[in-house]
Amino acid sequence: MSLEAQPKTPKEVEELPQVTIRFAGDSGDGMQLTGTQFTNASAIFGNDVSTMADFPAEIRAPAGTVYGVSGFQLQFSSSAIYTPGDVVDCLVAMNPAALKVNLAELKHGGVIILNEDGFTEQTLKLAGMDRNPIKDGSLGKYTVHSIPMTQSTLRACEEVGLTGKEAGRCKNFYALGVVCWLYSRPLEPILDFIEMKFKDREQLREANKRVLRAGYYFGETAELFTRVFRVRKAHLPPGVYREVHGNEALAIGLIAAGQLANKPIFYGSYPITPASDILHELARHKQFGVKTFQAEDEIAAICAALGASYGGALGVTASSGPGIALKAEALGLAVMVELPLVVINVQRGGPSTGLPTKVEQADLFQAVLGRNGECPLPVLAARSPSDCFEVALEATRIAVKFMTPVMVLSDGFIANSAEPWCFPNTGDLDPIEIEHTDEPNGENGRFLSYKRDEWLARPWALPGTPGLTHRIGGLEKQDVTGNVSYDPENHQRMVNLRQAKVDKVAEFVAEQEIMNDPDGTAEMLVVGWGSTYGAIRESARRLLRKGVRVAHVHLRHLNPFPRNLGAIFEKYRDRPVLVPEMNKGQLATLLRSKYLVDTQHLEKVQGRPFTTVEIMDAAEELLAAKGAKK
Amino acid sequence: MSLEAQPKTPKEVEELPQVTIRFAGDSGDGMQLTGTQFTNASAIFGNDVSTMADFPAEIRAPAGTVYGVSGFQLQFSSSAIYTPGDVVDCLVAMNPAALKVNLAELKHGGVIILNEDGFTEQTLKLAGMDRNPIKDGSLGKYTVHSIPMTQSTLRACEEVGLTGKEAGRCKNFYALGVVCWLYSRPLEPILDFIEMKFKDREQLREANKRVLRAGYYFGETAELFTRVFRVRKAHLPPGVYREVHGNEALAIGLIAAGQLANKPIFYGSYPITPASDILHELARHKQFGVKTFQAEDEIAAICAALGASYGGALGVTASSGPGIALKAEALGLAVMVELPLVVINVQRGGPSTGLPTKVEQADLFQAVLGRNGECPLPVLAARSPSDCFEVALEATRIAVKFMTPVMVLSDGFIANSAEPWCFPNTGDLDPIEIEHTDEPNGENGRFLSYKRDEWLARPWALPGTPGLTHRIGGLEKQDVTGNVSYDPENHQRMVNLRQAKVDKVAEFVAEQEIMNDPDGTAEMLVVGWGSTYGAIRESARRLLRKGVRVAHVHLRHLNPFPRNLGAIFEKYRDRPVLVPEMNKGQLATLLRSKYLVDTQHLEKVQGRPFTTVEIMDAAEELLAAKGAKK
Amino acid sequence: MSVTEQKREYTVKDFGSDQDVRWCPGCGDYSILSAVKKVLAEAGVPPEQYVFISGIGCSSRFPYYMSTYGIHSIHGRAMAVATGLKVARPDLHTFVITGDGDALSIGGNHTIHTLRRNVDITILLFNNQIYGLTKGQYSPTSPFGKKTKSTPMGSLDQPIAPMAIALAAEATFMARTIDMHPKHLMATVKRAMEHKGTSFVEIYQNCNIFNDGALAYAQDRKVRAENVIELEQGKPLLFGKDMNKGIVSEKGHLKAVRIGEDGITEDDVLVHDEEDSESYHAMLTRMRYPELPEPIGVFRAIERPTYEDLVNGQIERVIERKGKGDLQKLIVGRSTWEVHEDEAEAGKG
Amino acid sequence: MSVTEQKREYTVKDFGSDQDVRWCPGCGDYSILSAVKKVLAEAGVPPEQYVFISGIGCSSRFPYYMSTYGIHSIHGRAMAVATGLKVARPDLHTFVITGDGDALSIGGNHTIHTLRRNVDITILLFNNQIYGLTKGQYSPTSPFGKKTKSTPMGSLDQPIAPMAIALAAEATFMARTIDMHPKHLMATVKRAMEHKGTSFVEIYQNCNIFNDGALAYAQDRKVRAENVIELEQGKPLLFGKDMNKGIVSEKGHLKAVRIGEDGITEDDVLVHDEEDSESYHAMLTRMRYPELPEPIGVFRAIERPTYEDLVNGQIERVIERKGKGDLQKLIVGRSTWEVHEDEAEAGKG
Ligand SMILES: Cc1ncc(C[n+]2csc(CCOP(=O)(O)OP(=O)(O)O)c2C)c(N)n1
Ligand SMILES: Cc1ncc(C[n+]2csc(CCOP(=O)(O)OP(=O)(O)O)c2C)c(N)n1
Ligand code: SF4
Ligand code: SF4
Ligand SMILES: [Mg+2]
Ligand SMILES: [Mg+2]
């Protein structure tokens, strides 16, 4: 590690187990980039990291307004972590609005780093502040560092030859430099990034480098900081890591599925927040034969994907809640024609347009039950950014094995968060085996398009194959032959078969694992799904440290449920079951009806993830209540 | 009653408590009309009646094919009945295909009336029959009357001056005449009908009258019939009755709602089986100011209805499962903007296009849970054709009282069935009171579009009103003001408020009634919803006659559940709870999760209603199993 | 939409709401907002008589910034919502605000069906040739080969012309105007409002964040004259800085010519006629940059009864013939029978 | 759709399925089915190379009656399904069978977007001006004032012309033909199949149950010549029993004239050109009975790369430049770091 990477005059170095920083500024201030770079540097340094982005719903609201504030939070740690942090240790605020919006989550005594130049009469007014908090003493309980970042940035760029406007835009790297110094971060990975990003733009490259260093040296030189902090490397399982975002991991997972199945991916989609980035990502990887299709709407997107599947491609479509609603009718068709299809819902706040850039888990009912008729399909949920890769692979395996559409649930938190990913070696990934029928499977050379295999899947016969011509469609079809049939008993049989097929997926996938309770003696059970994983896991671990034993079951399979889930509830019978969800109890409803288990619900429908403390408190309260009852 | 109405030479008259007849023929044979006329005559005579239509999915499949068979079944009775009958006493079949398709449901020893002329070599072949069943003795266990109806019809029309083709089309009235004689039905109502229907077509009028009488007199004269049957008047509650079909009753109910609310109905819809007839019916009643809008698709239909509601009309939209799926996104908007809207789903067989002309109850999940986000709305179900009227009224009351979309579930059975309706006097119907805010409700003359009343409803301020301008939309809004808000706590509050509002509907509507168990000692509880009403009610009554006491709870309110439903389950705790549904247990799922009650499910997903016997058997088995366990 | 109420005095301020405008600084939407407010202020009809209905998109935030009634509905469906409102409430002045994605991608079908019905509403389509709100994917009006987030190697769909779609949908009023040409913009919006029936206005709008300058050929004063023809009723189709170029039709084939060259005189040039005929209007819709200059102004303005008038007309006619509906009669239906007290023994619950 | 495979001998029977045809006796759909089977038999491509995709409607039952591959999809979405299939499998000959409700009401938007993309599929739109399957409601092509089940006093929507919509959607091939004119029907279907790109064929079809005779003016041999112009490449737009009437354009305004009257000669008459130009094609789409005779035959047939070729072209170009995708490289991404055994104490599960 070069000299640059270590504070040269360590005034006083305090070791911390972990730190949570939030960068906040205008949408145009580049806070997402700043945060990502800091994360990257931390990960490469060897910390465990977890991030969360918080976008405004507006593209670029007028500068200085509270609704235009864009935030990026990360936690970096010397041990394994699972959340971007409950409370913020250090807040970087580029203007009054950013300060105002984020102050509540800063811990008492936390560090504030302000761009002093951003606190003008006008920006204060825009943020609805009467007085300048830098001056009025209202920030007394925090450690405030007010730095004229814009000025300093301009000065650092003086000789580079940028316009003032251009140079001003680099101020986020100044802030980044300051923070790097304060938390003893190496600059090299960031300098490398600048090198690559501005490969062809000499002036910008030079400017950003200078500004970054200027911020860093300012920290070193200024009398402002009496001590700096250090977070040691984390003890992660050995292996090679990269950082990955949720939507990115979904895209990589889909491409991997295509490669492992030796099939082209056809991705039909209509842009929608927070799912669009999957489309953007896939469109960049045409060398894998991926075909991306930006459709005229969500219905066309899913229908095209289904058509592609009929032709033998791996049809995939993605959207968020409102767009998934539009796909419901076509999903019914997919269930009826029994073709493989992967449908991804990156959930956001609802109902209706709701909170488009915020997180929520309220589309579970829609995924499992939101269609006309008896219309079952497997539903999987990813629990973290890197888990998206696994889930994309598994969803594809199920889709082709069972000839069925599969729904994958992610959410706005996972989509835009990053975490270290101990990625696999492609050689270790099981191939996805697909057999296309190429011979008649009935008597007298007849092709029976709905004759099922041992998994109850029908054959996937590709158009173009001689002797296997057949017609499929949305009308009920005769068992085995696939001809249209209005026969009453046949309908019942087909309804049962479609259900039985989906139920059989439970035999195909792994049993449910119980975490945090090796000997089965935990005092309670917490059941979760999706992106609450990190918060629940973290709280279970922290409770353990307090001597409270909490078993954690985190469901990837939401339909059908894992085959041993009933047994798990049996096992924990008479112990409280807590189900924390970012909705009003959707998983709880499904569990209660299926297992008649009296779950306790912890809900948070606020467009932001659970904090660890919220879950710990709920668990402890529940135990206390139970104790009191005894 | 005129002479014509009574068989002149009653060979032998057998009294029957009730009779089930099925008319079956080609789609073009006029079987629906024939059945309707017989029903009408029976109702006017004083029987209780219940009917069921069974259409093919094809418009008019080639004559003589099995998939082109159209059927109409009715039961008429000397006591109150609730179903169109389990097994058929008398089958009228106009051709081999009609015989083939319907024979299985004829009781042993039942009567078959055949159009002998319809059994040609060609039609036999079309029906896939090697031999003529009239001649090969295969119908030995039935009483078969084979009558050359086409010939006789042509002869009866000889002097009227119709073409042979036109005359031939009258043969259904010949069949009707025969059946009227056999069951001692008066001809007068039918003759009146012919008079009216062919008001302007002298020849057809004459021909049909002659043919009807010819059939009747044939019965009287022919040696074929050794006895005729009579079903006495039923002892119905006193009052004036009419016959009504489900879709018709929905239309009348909506119009009544409009009149009682003093509001125009705006009905936006896209045609779909089996909902289209509501549109057709409403379009005929423009004198009530009803505006019907045939939209370009289901989405436009609901959006237009919502727009109309914003303007102060009563917005209504209807479809069937696949079309309701398409409305899901807009329903979310309706929930968010909190405007009154009635959404009707006339359910059919699913999933996907499924069995478009058949009955099913598998859209309950879709109605209650099938949207993105936490998106609650009240759901009501009609239990019989005439109940549709009540439900349409109640849905409207709830929609305007609570400012919410309301989903009404009907189904293909109710839609096309008829029953006697002891219709209300308009003077006895409560008006629907609507108050449109016309003054600012906030301080300083501000209008607060989301300030709620004691029912948690927001004000319905109409565009055009000075001082109340406001904007609504699908983004989350601030409590009270209705401004767009991304605030986390506000989102939770609004999600809770929307749920609380819908939950409050339970306080507004009646408590759940328990039938068939006045003293609470029944051995078991049967819970149903929708069109299973008749079959459950009938089986409960028949079980009672056998000494088996079964309490019957039939839910109109599926979301929220009636406020005393929990108490009812408490009351029957430890007694079996049977939930018969024409789906795989959707209501059962909701009940189980809400009340943790271990329901037993009886499912039938065959595109046709339960028979009484099926439910009786299930109930008895359940009791036997319980007995055995003891 | 006809504005016939008694006029009072209003100012632009009367039409602005108390909500902060949240578009990106420099966005073309601002000038459209300001033009619309000005036109309304001049119309003299109070704010509460207007309803602005939008779909989803940057442009669709518009209603929040007006002090009128409004609905920010769902993506692509604003016209359907507006249709229902207008049929229920013909007295209200109803605007639809939409974008090129909202109106031509997901909402394309509603656009067509609204136009053919001729509901009396005013549609303003903000065409920035991009999806703004979702951060920059190509739209149905983006040129072929457009590089965007979703098409890093260029888009592959042929763009469609909103005016061509409108005519195919039997629009009674269609016009095009430009965000950066405020006078023309205001005049066009005013004409659209005054039209009785669906008026459809395409507004070229700059998205300076994701598609800056895409429409500069028409927006930029410096080049506009060469690339745009300002349509005027009864006037020949002339263009160019010196107005010395014109459009001729040779047996149905359009050509740009220079007056005075090859014996061409102004008489050979097509003459604009808003009212007549379809085939001429059809030709106008096919004029596209860079092959031909693009017309701006009112392409077509014809009379046809509005949908809501027709709906009400049918109701009135029935009532004239049969009188107002009698609910009791409807409920009673065609034939009834009575069950008397003494017949009633076993009840039917 | 281009049919280039090596030809073998097939008969009509090779293309019929074992399913009974369930249309009403007398329905125009029968003759279309028979014509398509004949054309395919002649094309010499085996049945398994074809896929017929339909929506919902009477017409959409078509695939069941063919011995090819097929999907009877959902209402209005056949073109989207076909697009996905064709992009995934450019080798298959893909047909879409649709109705006026399916393609222009609920599916109108997909029609537009499919056409502008120019996917190489053949669309046959059975236009019977009615919703057949749902038993007789008016459709987007029903004439104004049409009395149907849903419009007992007459419909109030202006009908749209499928050809006008197609051109507005930038169709590369559009044609019209008639169920009762089998020779013309077969020739037109054949041309459509041969076109490389989306071909859009409107077929006038009689629904003898719910709309009998609605299109008799064009179907009936006795009157057809007066009401219909058979387009032929390079030939003047003449019509009438004696071919003595023609169509002229006066500065873009179309008129029917009689040759020899008012000094009009055949030279004044418009000459049909499938390839050039948009404005002429636009005029053709506006010719509607009874004001003008209606063209049948190929309106427009131009060349433009197909969507699937463009998609594949981009993929090939990238692979040429960067080589085939390397999964491991993709998974590894831009920057990684390693955690060594000795650093690992507390695991992360
Ligand atoms: C059903 C649905 N699908 C997708 C979206 C995401 N979305 C919102 S606006 C938009 C397109 C915006 O483009 P345009 O209509 O041109 O408006 P602009 O932002 O350019 O003004 C999209 C795809 C959505 N909100 N709802
Ligand atoms: C989502 C959905 N909405 C409505 C329907 C009902 N429906 C089936 S076909 C049809 C219209 C048929 O008309 P057209 O496309 O002209 O076909 P035709 O029957 O005349 O051949 C309608 C409304 C449906 N099946 N699905
Ligand atoms: S993204 Fe473009 S269209 Fe949207 S507000 Fe910003 S500049 Fe305007
Ligand atoms: S209803 Fe009309 S279109 Fe449908 S099959 Fe019958 S005749 Fe043909
Ligand atoms: Mg746009
Ligand atoms: Mg049709």
Word description of this protein:
The complex is a heterotetramer, with two copies of chain A (630 residues) and two copies of chain C (349 residues). Chain A folds into four domains: 12-230, Pyruvate-ferredoxin oxidoreductase, PFOR, domain III (Pyruvate-ferredoxin Oxidoreductase, domain 3, 3-Layer(aba) Sandwich), CATH 3.40.920.10; 246-423, Rossmann fold, CATH 3.40.50.970; 443-508, no CATH class; 524-629, Rossmann fold (3-Layer(aba) Sandwich), CATH 3.40.50.920. Helix content of chain A is 37%, strand content 20%. In chain A, the strands form five sheets. Chain A has a seven-stranded mixed β-sheet with strand order 11-10-12-13-15-14-20, with helices on both faces. A six-stranded mixed β-sheet of chain A has the order 3-4-2-5-6-7, sandwiched between helices. The longest helix of chain A is centred in the C-terminal third of the chain and has 21 residues, at 488-508. Residues 1-7 of chain A have low confidence and may be disordered. Chain C has two domains: 12-220, Rossmann fold, CATH 3.40.50.970; 309-348, no CATH class. Helix content of chain C is 30%, strand content 18%. Chain C is built from eleven helices and twelve strands. In chain C, the strands form two sheets. Chain C has an eight-stranded mixed β-sheet with strand order 2-1-3-4-6-5-11-7, with helices on both faces. In chain C, β9 and β10 form a beta hairpin. The model of chain C is unreliable at 344-349 (pLDDT under 50). The chains are: A alpha/beta (630), C alpha/beta (349). Chains in contact: A-B, A-C, A-D, B-C, B-D, C-D. At the A-D interface, α1, β9, α9, α11 and α13 of A face β1, β2, α2, α4 and α10 of D.
Fold blueprint:
The complex is a heterotetramer, with 2 copies of chain A (630 residues) and 2 copies of chain C (349 residues).
Chain A: E1 13-16, E2 18-26, H1 31-45, E3 48-54, E4 69-77, E5 88-93, H2 96-102, E6 106-115, H3 121-126, E7 143-147, H4 149-157, H5 164-168, H6 171-182, H7 188-197, H8 202-221, E8 228-231, E9 239-245, H9 246-261, E10 265-269, H10 276-283, E11 291-294, H11 298-310, E12 314-319, H12 321-326, H13 328-337, E13 341-347, H14 364-369, E14 379-381, H15 387-402, E15 405-411, H16 412-416, E16 418-421, E17 471-473, H17 488-508, E18 524-529, H18 533-545, E19 550-555, E20 557-559, H19 565-571, E21 577-581, H20 586-595, E22 600-603, H21 612-629
Helix pairs in contact in A: 1-6, 1-7, 4-8, 6-8, 7-8, 9-10, 9-15, 11-13, 18-21
Chain C: H1 29-43, E1 50-54, E2 69-72, H2 78-88, E3 93-99, H3 100-106, H4 108-117, E4 121-127, H5 162-168, E5 173-178, H6 182-194, E6 199-204, H7 216-219, H8 221-227, E7 228-230, E8 238-239, E9 245-250, E10 253-258, H9 278-285, E11 294-301, H10 307-322, H11 327-332, E12 336-339
Parallel strand pairs in C: 1-2, 1-3, 3-4, 4-6, 5-6, 7-11
Antiparallel strand pairs in C: 5-11, 8-9, 9-10
Helix pairs in contact in C: 1-6, 3-4, 5-9
Bound molecules: thiamine diphosphate (2 copies), iron/sulfur cluster (2 copies) and magnesium ion (2 copies).
